[in-house]
Amino acid sequence: MAMTDDEIRQAAGYFSSIKWDTRWVRVVETENVPRTRIQGNLLIAIADERTEPLAGRIIEVPADQVQRSSIAIRDRAGSPTRRWGASRAAESS
Is the Cβ–Cβ distance between 11 and 4 less than 8 Å? Predict the structure, then answer.
């Protein structure tokens, strides 16, 4: 069953009113990112140096070494992360 135009407007109004808690996320716009590996359902940075091309991806990794080593046993809620993405200038070129 499809949504009506009014239901779509109501849903858009609801989701646009949500105040997202972004204090746990630091966004970094860059061309290169740290090498990563998959652990569970998360990407884990295996190096601090940004040597791997981003190549149009958006990646999210734990912010520090302590989180990297204990990520398998921690609840992810409230864990600071870094979200890497291409800069707007890079996307338009």
Answer: no
